[in-house]
Specification:
Layout (H helix, E strand, L loop, with lengths): L1 E2 L7 E3 L2 E7 L3 E8 L10 E3 L1 E13 L2 E11 L6 H13 L5
Parallel strand pairs: 2-5
Antiparallel strand pairs: 1-2, 3-4, 4-6, 6-7
Length: 97
């Protein structure tokens, strides 16, 4: 999976596996880095998703309880201002689901 960087940050890519399981009232999605030998791309930094995932549980017909976890090493050099922007976007992500 590849993400475009915001200048002056290089693009990032992840090599990971994901699994999904669902029932009538819940859905679990998990992601983790793997050692698949995918070649590194030019001008792209390999980031690592140690663990990531979603738990979605139906409360009623109009509401869903959402849990989002993420432990990612973006690697390389990223200015603090951009790290702060990324952290703010990550924190608001579950509320947009």
């Amino acid at each position: 999976m590849k993400y475009s960087g915001i200048w002056p940050v290089e693009d990032r890519d992840f090599v990971s596996v994901a699994a999904k399981t669902a029932s009538a009232d819940s859905c679990y999605i998990a992601t983790q880095a793997c050692d698949f030998p995918y070649p590194k791309q030019n001008k792209t930094t390999r980031a690592i998703c140690h663990i990531g995932g979603w738990i979605l549980k139906k409360i009623d017909a109009q509401s869903t309880h959402v849990i989002y976890i993420s432990d990612i090493d973006l690697a390389g050099s990223i200015p603090q201002m951009i790290k702060n922007q990324i952290a703010q976007k990550q924190a608001s992500l579950p509320s947009r689901v």
